Amino acid sequence: MSTAAANAAKKQRGRPFKPGRSGNPVGKAKGTRHRITVLAEKMMEDDAPAVVTAVLGAAKAGDMTAARIILDRVAPARRGRPVKFTLPTLETAAEIVRGLGAIITAVADGTLTPDEAAAVANLIEIKRKAVETVEIERRVADLEQKEANRVF
């Protein structure tokens, strides 16, 4: 048997692990980053000043792609816009329901887009949870007070 054939015979081919058992049952530690990512970050860290200088130089020379890269970092496009519509005060559950109704009305008449309405509704949901929490705290305090005043 030749040396190549002997080496090939020693190597396990196919499935080296028993079914249901991996070679590293614990797996990588949580938060471990891929070595290529770490290497790329190190390279960028070392070359960042030179890259920034090169992109700035290209932008100054009229390279519109370089200019766009810089402008996207310095003055990014706004993702949202301020919206103005009438929203009632939101201090009780009934007012919160009216607030959600106002949002639906604003979507129906085109004042708000559905995405904007969803964002405002999320804010109202946060307010609802806060109102609910305050109400529960008040009720628990009342119950504790009644229990403390109860005569046995």
Provide the low-confidence segments as ranges: none
How many alpha or pi helices?
A: 5
Rg result: 32 Å
- How would you sum up the global shape? flat
From the N-terminal CA to the C-terminal CA, the straight-line distance is 97 Å
Order of helices and strands: HHHHH
Summarize model confidence as the mean pLDDT. 84
Kindly describe this structure.
The protein is an all-alpha fold and 152 residues long. Among the domains are: 35-74, no CATH class; 93-149. 64% of the residues lie in helices and 0% in strands. It is built from five helices and no strands. The protein has helices at 3-10, 35-60, 64-74, 93-108, 114-149. It starts with a helix and ends with a helix. The mean pLDDT is 84.
Salient structural properties:
mainly alpha, single chain, 5 helices
How does the SSE layout of this entry go?
Elements: H1 3-10, H2 35-60, H3 64-74, H4 93-108, H5 114-149
Summarize the structure.
Helix content is 64%, strand content 0%.
